[in-house]
Backbone:
């Protein structure tokens, strides 16, 4: 009997050890992350970096970071990551959607692209796209409640699908909240994601014609938007509120003008990707969205009345349940048509 029990225990230990080894083998050992700007921008780049650090700690793999790479050809960086042993590389910018699949096919190393549905390949290429418009609907609704001049602005650093979806969702929420409001729209430039000076100038132009709430999309450019709202007064002498995207700039908001931010949690999607690696389904489309809790609204500024806070909470529940349908407009031409229809000049 003792021999039988001993044998059973030995088998159990072997099975447990074998299972642990299999689980370890099912995970990547080194994951590369490429980002176009510094990983301290409190926005797109930082959320990518922090999100992967969170998942690396959860699953125990190492991380290889390539930051401030710009938007040019990053093939040398990707090849270097492959040489260092990266068995998964996340290319955290839509500007990398051409080179990333080329490196995957050249080396056989799995990659994750951004906003690149067409290259999704089972076992080799996964893609991350965004559905942030629900969070932006809440931001637009909040802007409509907090504007005093009834003039609200959007300042954007480009017109990629993500920013277009966000602008449209924001406009829809603003219209629902304050039908009589006027909406201004300024494009800093093509892929002007890091143009803080241009962002500041465009924000100041909107403030000069009466905007007292500005919704900004810009990565590094958003610092210029925050600076404009911090340093300029609205026409009534009061604050110009700033609504940010992706990150939380409250720690650097000395003028207390940050009204809220549409927050993104990239760790949610990175977790989905690692799970797909484990279960053998890697090579599919992933979404940053409200329904997987990767999109939410930053707790509004303390100046927001409690009644408005409650309305925003109620909106969140309705958006998640589908009771409120938010437009999905990824194409710039369609966005401009929508904005003109909702806010005719």
Residues:
């Amino acid at each position: 009997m003792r021999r039988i029990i001993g044998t059973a225990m030995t088998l159990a230990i072997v099975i447990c050890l074998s299972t642990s080894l299999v689980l370890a083998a099912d995970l990547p050992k080194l994951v590369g992350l490429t980002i176009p700007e510094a990983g301290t921008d409190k926005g797109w780049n930082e959320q990518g970096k922090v999100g992967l650090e969170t998942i690396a700690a959860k699953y125990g793999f190492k991380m290889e970071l390539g930051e401030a790479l710009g938007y040019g050809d990053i093939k040398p960086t990707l090849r270097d990551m492959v040489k260092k042993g990266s068995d998964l590389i996340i290319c955290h910018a839509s500007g990398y959607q051409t080179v990333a699949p080329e490196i995957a096919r050249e080396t056989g190393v799995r990659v994750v692209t951004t906003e690149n549905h067409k290259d999704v390949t089972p076992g080799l290429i996964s893609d991350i796209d965004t559905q942030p418009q629900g969070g932006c609907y809440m931001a637009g609704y909040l802007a409509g409640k907090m504007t005093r001049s009834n003039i609200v602005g959007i300042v954007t650093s480009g017109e990629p699908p993500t920013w277009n979806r966000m602008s449209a969702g924001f406009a829809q929420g603003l219209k629902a909240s304050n039908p009589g409001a006027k909406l201004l729209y300024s494009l800093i430039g093509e892929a002007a994601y890091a143009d803080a000076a241009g962002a500041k100038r465009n924000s100041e132009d909107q403030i000069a014609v009466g905007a007292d709430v500005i919704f900004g999309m810009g990565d590094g450019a958003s610092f210029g938007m925050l600076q404009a709202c911090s340093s300029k007064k609205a026409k009534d002498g009061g604050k110009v509120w700033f609504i940010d995207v992706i990150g939380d700039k409250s720690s650097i908001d000395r003028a207390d003008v940050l009204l809220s931010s549409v927050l993104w949690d990239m760790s949610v999607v990175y977790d989905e990707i690692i799970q797909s690696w484990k279960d053998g389904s890697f090579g599919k489309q992933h979404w940053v969205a409200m329904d997987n809790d990767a999109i939410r609204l930053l707790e509004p500024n303390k100046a927001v009345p409690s009644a408005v806070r409650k309305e925003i909470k109620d909106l969140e529940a309705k958006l998640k349940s589908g009771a409120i349908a938010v437009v999905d407009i990824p194409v710039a031409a369609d966005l401009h048509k929508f904005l003109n229809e909702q806010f005719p000049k």
